[in-house]
Structures are given as C-alpha cells and as structure tokens.
Amino acid sequence: MDVRSFVRALPKAELHLHLEGALEPELMMRLAARNKVDIPFRSVEEVRAAYRFTRLQDFLDIYYRGMDVLRAEEDFHDLTAAYLERAAADGAVHVEVFFDPQGHAARGIPFAVAADGILAALAEGPERLGITSLLIMCVLRHLDEEDGFAAFREAAPYVADGRIAGLGLDSTEKNNPPAKFERLFAAAREAGLRLVAHAGEEGPASYVADAVDRLGVDRIDHGNHALDDPALVRRLAGLGIPLTVCPLSNLRLGGVADLRQHPLKRMLDAGLRATVNSDDPAYFGGYLLDNFVAVAEALQLEAADLVTLARNSIEASFLDEPAKRTHLDRLDRIAGAQG
C-alpha cells in the first residue's frame, strides 16, 4: 500500500490546529517586512534554526515571539489561507481551527482584527478549495480566569451569530489544571459553544478527567496521559469522547522519544476515538498528511486503522449530521475499493 496516496484520498477532518502555529518562516519574514516589525532573524534559515527545540516552554517562547508579525486583518487572512491550502492538499475536507485572542490582545491587536481576518479566509475555503471550517477561540491557561472572561466578552457578537463555534484551553499545562477555568467553561456552555481542552499532553491523567468532569468538554486535545489510568481509558471509551492526537508534536516536544513508542495504536486498541492532527505544523515539521504517514509507518498501521482514524475525525467533528454522513459515505466507498 502506498500510505501517502491512500491517506490523501481519505476524506478527513483536522481538529487540532493552532493557526498561529502554521506560520511558516517564509511568511513570517514577509509579514515582518510588510509591517516593519523588528524580529531577531535575518533569514528564513535563521528562523528554521530557532524552530529546533525540545521542550514545550521553549516552543511557546518562540511561538509568541513569532506571532508578533501578525498585525492587520490581511496578515491573519494570509496565514489562514496558506494553512487551508496545505490542509486541502492533504485531503482534508473539514478543519476546526484554534486561535489565541489573548496572545494578540497583549500586543494591542483588537479581537476583531484577528477574528475577521481569519474568518474571511475560512469563508473562501468551500468554493476555492472544497474545505469547510469552524473557528474555536482558545484561552491561555497560564493567565487567570478573569483574563479569559475578558476575551470571552469581546467574542460575544461572534458567539451570538455562530461565527465562533467553540471555546478551547491551551498553553502551559503544568500547574494550570482545568478546574482553574470551570466558571468560564460553564458560561461558554450556557452560550451554546462546543468545548475542548488540552489535557494530558504534559499534565497527568487527572487533568483529562477534570476536563471531562469539571469543564464538560466535548473533546480532549492530546490526552496521551489518559493511558496512565486504565479506569479513565475505559470511561473515555464508553463515553466516546474523542482525543485529538498530534504525533509529530509529541515527538518534537519529548512526549515520546521515538514514534515507534507513540500510544496511538494502543488508543485504538483500547476503543478510544483517537484522531490524527498536526497541532503547530510550521514548528513541528509536518502537516496533517505528514503526521498520518509518519505514525502509520512507525506503528505499522494497517489500512483499516487509517480508515478508522479518518472516520473518527469526521465523527468527532462539530459538523452537522448530514455533512458527516456525506463524508462518511465517501470514506466507505474508498475503503471498500481498497478491499
């Protein structure tokens, strides 16, 4: 089986993608020049060298430094459009993307500048690339809950008319448990948003449990350390709560020393609804298809496993049921043709 061609043909959704993490060095340099932003890099090669890190905090430091080049709606549009082109080329039919409004507000960039630029590019996706999308705003867990509430209040018009579909929780997980944001997530739920949270990437299995029990999330982003608690694994499987797993991110940040040790196959074998995603692809060395191929080869996944992962991504998405059914029917036809 030609894994890359087979996976590219499968209709699939990407559910764990930070738009700011899709900022390729070439685009960073162009935006820095366009906006006359002084960055500590003289070339694309220097940017790529800075992207060589092994710890989450080192990544976050350069991540927040890099986003400083995003200043105008046009910048956010161009970043989003570039990501959509890569996702469509990888065979994605739907994406649910994160952005960090607090990271931009701290730089004096109004919520609407980021949101409107991103949404303009997402709106072009169906006709230009055949790819649908939803936008999820994330709150930064290293900040306090009131700061998250401030961002949430700014988002109110976008929440009210459905332009923002969900609320997520990201950034430094250590010493920032989900319970810290319990009131905010309750308010978001009351407002009709879908809920997701990073948990179990570097934090313990108890953070995964708390994201489910105290935040009421629909999906867990990462979730690797859930496997440390067999009872939790059985519960997640029984509830059907999806995990948005990011293999190359785990490898780069030291979550696994070798992709052959990655827990994805164990997740599938345990009945967990695991999906494959790229997280911050410009920084971690691969977009959606790269992640599928790398983990498929490392874990010797069968065609049936790859179909299951694609199926899980569609079923775990926040698409409506008719749209899901259309993609799943096409997936079944492709899987049947493979034999």
Would you mind describing this structure in some detail?
The protein is α/β, with parallel strands linked by helices. It has a single domain, classed as Alpha-Beta Barrel (TIM Barrel), CATH 3.20.20. The protein has helices at 3-9, 25-35, 44-50, 56-66, 73-89, 101-105, 111-129, 145-154, 156-160, 182-190, 205-213, 230-239, 247-252, 264-269, 281-284, 288-299, 303-316, 321-338; strands at residues 12-18, 92-99, 132-140, 166-170, 194-199, 219-222, 243-245, 274-276. The chain has an eight-stranded parallel sheet with strand order 1-2-3-4-5-6-7-8. Strand 4 (166-170), helix 10 (182-190) and strand 5 form a beta-alpha-beta unit. Helix 17 packs antiparallel against helix 18 (321-338). The model has no long low-confidence stretch (mean pLDDT 95).
Write a concise synopsis of the structure shown:
The chain is of the alpha/beta class and 339 residues long. It has helices at 3-9, 25-35, 44-50, 56-66, 73-89, 101-105, 111-129, 145-154, 156-160, 182-190, 205-213, 230-239, 247-252, 264-269, 281-284, 288-299, 303-316, 321-338; strands at residues 12-18, 92-99, 132-140, 166-170, 194-199, 219-222, 243-245, 274-276.
